[in-house]
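Table 4 source record.
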Amino acid sequence: MSTSTIVGLVLILVQNVNSQLGAPDTIPDVFDFDLYERVLDPELCRSQVEYMKTENQLLLLKFQDVSFKIPTGFLSNVNTNDFVQVPVNQEIRLPFIEGSNGVLSGELLADELRKTGRDPELVLRSAGQRADNSNLGSVLDNLTLRLGMCMPQTCTTEEWVTRLVNFNVSVFGFKYEEEYCRLPNDKRWVAADYVAIVVFSFIAVLTVLSTCYDLHSTFTLKIDPKKISPLYKSFSVYTNTRRLVTFAPNPNALDCLDGLRAISIMWVILGHTFSMYNVFANLLDVFDFLVSRGATFIQSGVFAVDTFLTMAGILLVYTTVGKMTSRSLLKTIHLFYLNRIMRLFPLLGAIVLLEASVFHRVADGPYWLTVARNVERCRNWWWSTLLYVQNYVNPNDICIQHSWYLAIDMQLHIISPLILVWVFSGKRSYAWSALIGSILAFLVSGTVFNFFFNLPSSNASIVRLAEQADYMDKFYQNTLTRGSPFLFGMAMGYLLNITKGKKIKIHLAVVLAAWVIAIAMFGTVFYITYEVLQLDWNNQLADNLYNSFARPLWAIALCWLVFACVHGYGGPINWFLCLQFWKIPARISYAMYLFHYSFMFIAAGAQLRPIYFSVAQSLFDYLAHLFLATMAAFVVTVLIDAPFSTLTKLLLGGGAKRPRRPPPPVDKVANDIQQENGNTRI
């Protein structure tokens, strides 16, 4: 066996071990796999193969073209439908050639990798294995190739291969195990599909009726817009679109947050584009990129979520202090929670229903198993996502994988009244004590937690890939370890509120020093993010410190940035963040966050063959995903989010406000009070 063949197989090996598209331990129960058994017909299989071999060789070439080899897809776009697992450690015998003995073993693979200048341990890390040079071969011997082929649906894998080559490959000692087979129209219809049809059809009907009513009232009857029923026009595309693209000036608005919110969601989409579960033909080049300096900005995209949490804390306090007291908060605590739930639920419920039904049917492909697994999660665990407990109840099977952030956000809002009751007390000493005390409590408990579990410091660390599940469950999706940015945001929101409308004078030297410190904090986070991803990284103390304090440092620097921009010390940064350009992306950022990842899974699942990774191609894909997410977010915001927002305001506000009547004469007021209170005088 030639060196080039072995290296090519190693590329496939790395590609398919712990498959990037999630080679299944169990196949998702969303396909009708009994269909495969029902259509098997050995006689028909034989006749079809003979027909292709004797009369239609072009069709036979098409079947072979999309089966496992490099490259695929030259003649056609037929999908690979059958996947098999082939052990790496095999001894191939050619009985008709004397002395023939081809061996494909772990030791041989390790030797060939060394000849190409690659570190064989990289293969093990990609498979979640740990080994030193002494047992590389033995570990590789336990690995398997995951290969796909296309064949007539009447044939089994053994029948197809045997009839194709006119002999049984097991004679040569070649071993493989059939993993699963996909057939056309094997997606079963379930309750979620019918619910989706009913729900989205109902919304469509409401949208059409509401829009017609709104347009008829506005343009035909020329009724004053203020007199048109807000309930009847709540689903109007015309009104909701106008509101979305209309910006009324507000002197108390924190305009810089629009830029931060828009840039953060773009950063999230960028990071997900580069980390998407695509199948690459040059996977070792992908690993090289992951540890390069150019990938640092991509890997640091995880801090965009901490930016969202910080801004959520800022707005929670900034928009409520002065409007409520501790007593009124306790009396209306149910409305406080209901308002937050209704802010998140409509779009979250929509994406859960779409993931469980519609997204499963919009496309298909040889790598569709990952989409199918997402479908199965949403059909089984939809309730945990809608109750915002998915990061604890089923952390490994989250419906809408990135919705863990919404769970943390909701959980922090649930416990926030414990702090707000002191913030709303009217006494600044109580407010600051509660805010600082909660920050210290989270920092101390989070630090103890991190030092107890000794987790890695990144979910992209190649050297500790086997610990990724623990890292995600215990740290990345944990409210305790991710909550401090929200609390720092609450403190900044309180500071901005008590300084609202005031001219804050800060000495230039102090401003410059604060900016230098903030930039140093941002830079430190970026630098350490790069270091912890290197293949020679081995510093558990630094990992624990990074997990405990990197996000608080990020939040502190971000809080200064917001404070400086609000009070006139932001300079060009404030000008950039306050551009009108950011306002629409900021308003639809929640929808963009929810929907973009599902579109990426669909695109990756429909991929027909391994692609060649390059930074330029990934950036091009990013622009495509960003455009698609923006368009989809705009549509669902107009059709779903805006209508339910209006209904929530009508519900919680007691309906539309009636125009105020002119105040009654003073004599009448006095007379009414005297009648009510007897001889009481004014």
